[in-house]
Each structure stands twice: as structure tokens, then as C-alpha cells.
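dumping this here before i forget
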Amino acid sequence: MSYCLYCHESYSEAWSWEALIGLKQSPLLCQDCEGRLVRINGEICRICGRDFSVFPEQYRQGDSCFDCIRWEENEDWNGILQQNRSLYVYNDYMKEIIAKLKYRGDAEIVKAFYPVMSSEFKRISRNTIFVPIPLSEERHYERGFNQSELLAEGLNKSVENLLKRKTHEEKQSKKTREERLSQKENPFEVVDSNKVKEQKVILVDDVYTTGSTLRYAAKVLIEVGAKEVSSITLAR
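structure:
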């Protein structure tokens, strides 16, 4: 008998030889909670990883969504973020999970996604540096943890905290799309540029919304010599 990390109800795991001999990790969410998650599969935007199956056809052009086309047409942002890949659609249920994690302090729920993260991204080269998106010191103190760093730990890769957030800002979730995109000063700085030069970097964050946070972080890394920057998020 196990207990779901989201609803905390007990449930029985499905029996299998793989689980018995340790080839398959035990599920950490009950079947009902697992069933409400929507994995991103099939056709996606080549840059941001948006699932085209839940996205209106008129908002895409070829293999890119209009959001990414607008970013790439801007000479200040062209090529800054190579690509983003996300595991789940940011539906109402995923919003509840993220809120429980970030705003109600349930850090344990992150572990529910470790098996799929380590499996999905296990082929990423060991020569890549994984960098979580940082919180401000005030936000980190308030929350007690950085959810992006906790997610990065689920990749079973070496994680480097090479970014620092310079300013304490209003929560991104409370900003409108226009406010996120109109930000002029880069809120990030690189802690140790020597570790970044000529390296491939993958940023880790909880949610890709407009892409502005990840691109600002990618930009400071490129400016100090990173070879290329991509990102991984739990949801898109």
C-alpha cells in the first residue's frame, strides 16, 4: 500500500515483473491523480515545445508557434534560447500542483515527477551543465526552497547554481503577459562565468509561460560565453 503525494490517499500499485525486480520505479501518484496529468506527446513547436494538439491551428506557422516566431524575429532575442522541452501541459490540474508546491510549501510533491524526468531526459550528454532558475533571496527565504532546484535534482545529473537573481520582484504568476515581456533590465547575473564559457547549458524551471524568464537567463549566460542554452520545464 502506498500514499499519493498529491491527494495523500492510499492506493495499491499495479503489479509487474519490472517493479518486482527493480527495473521500474513505483508510481508516486495514485491512478486518479496520474490520469489528470496530460503528457506532451506528438507534434510540438520546435523551439518552445508547445503541444500543437491542444493549441489552435491559426496560432502556428509550420513547425513553430507565433510566440516563438515573434521572439526569433527580434534581433535582440534571435537564437538566445535554442529550445525548451516540457513534460506536461499546463492545464488546471497542473496549476493546482504547482500552486501546492510553490505557495503552500509542499516540496515533497516534486518527487512524484522524478521517475519520468530521469527517464525522459536520461540521454542528455553529461558534458551539459544543468542550471536551475534562481529565486530572489527574499523569495527563497519566504518559501524555504527553490522549486526549480528541486526539479533539477530529479534529473540525476550534476546541478550548478550559476545564476543569481539581482532584484526581488513581484511573483511572475501575478504579472500579465505584457508586463513579463516589457521588462527591460535583465533580473539575472552569472555567479561564475568561468564555468559557463564554451559550455552547453540547460536551464531548469517549473513552468514555461511566455518564455521571458528563460530567455533573460539564457541571455546572460550567452553574454559570458556559453556555447548554447536550452531549457527543461515541468509544464508548458
